[in-house]
Amino acid sequence: MFQIDKRQLKNFDIILLTIVVVISICGIIAIYSASYDMTDGIFDPFYKKQIVWFFAGLVTFFTFSAISYKRLIEFAPLLYLSGIILLLLVLFIGHVGMGAQRWINLGGFKLQPSEIFKIVFVIILAYSFRDLNENKLTFIDIIKKSLIMIIPFLLIFFQPDLGTATIFLATWGMVLLYRGITKRTFIVSLVSFLAILPVLWFNLKEYQKNRVLTFLNPERDPFGSGYHVIQSKVAIGSGGLFGKGFMHGTQTHLKFLPERHTDFIFSLINEEFGLLGGGIILLLFVILIYRILQISIETKEASGKILCVAVASVTFFQVFVNSAMTVSLMPVVGIPMPFISYGGSSMITFMGMMGLVNSVSMRKYNSPSEY
Fold this sequence. Notes:
Blueprint: H1 6-10, H2 14-34, E1 36-37, E2 42-43, H3 46-66, H4 69-74, H5 76-93, E3 95-97, E4 100-106, E5 109-111, H6 113-128, H7 139-157, H8 162-179, H9 183-202, H10 206-216, H11 227-239, H12 250-253, H13 265-298, H14 302-326, H15 344-362
Antiparallel strand pairs: 1-2, 3-4, 4-5
Helix pairs in contact: 2-3, 2-13, 3-15, 5-6, 5-7, 6-8, 6-14, 6-15, 7-8, 8-14, 11-13, 13-14, 13-15, 14-15
């Protein structure tokens, strides 16, 4: 599983690693600014912890790079079972915060199993949809292949973690389209999805419904559910083209902007570095996703292709949802920006997924017996 030859080392994707490191350093800089309290001149320790998580993430990246992704896919059922157990533990011993039960306390660290499950999720997708050379999937085929996804989706949805559940659903859809389905199947699937939307709506928590209604009209509750998005738009708008300067964001440092080191850190970046700074961050993610898809194209092995497409999809949707919710283009769903937002679970998860992509890159020219 850990065997690496010289040819694999030659295919180590230094470009992928460089992009990830650059984005992560940008995140640490932003968290450093978010940690500063202008009123008393004291720094919160968030940035120090993020540096620790960054190095832990690098270890995770190299570990997953060294492991043959093909071997991990063979263990997909066992990984899936382990992930389900973690998600079930949240229901019984999970920590409740901000109206949701998503974390497990491990000493001084809060583990978020729904984040860690993303690694399991992309592996399961590669395991389930690796038959790329066969005929396009029918509606019955989709149901059979997707039964395994229902349990984790429901467990995450009812934590409740609507954002992560949505990311999983969107990623599953992208992989499904990549794998290939008939036109009739696509139409039936779309109609079925639209039909269950009312059921999903009536199963949302009250605060989640308020978030959707606030997305449609933030001014309906400017000091309640609409406060986050209004302050975020003010921060982004006040940054202009070039921003107010590093650690000079008034919305941020006077604490008008909530969750400035986690969900709304992109607002901080835009306030202090302007549209230019925010645009550079998004461009870096575009380059990262392009690189992942390029590796998918270059690899000869079907499950490796699916794995890369799944990782690219998770990354794209998470960046899109996070950045879009800061300007009221999406409801506020508590989704962190990969490598940028503060958080150990998110950092290690995305570093692990990038390590999986690098594992595919290192073995993309191997014969089947060498995986």
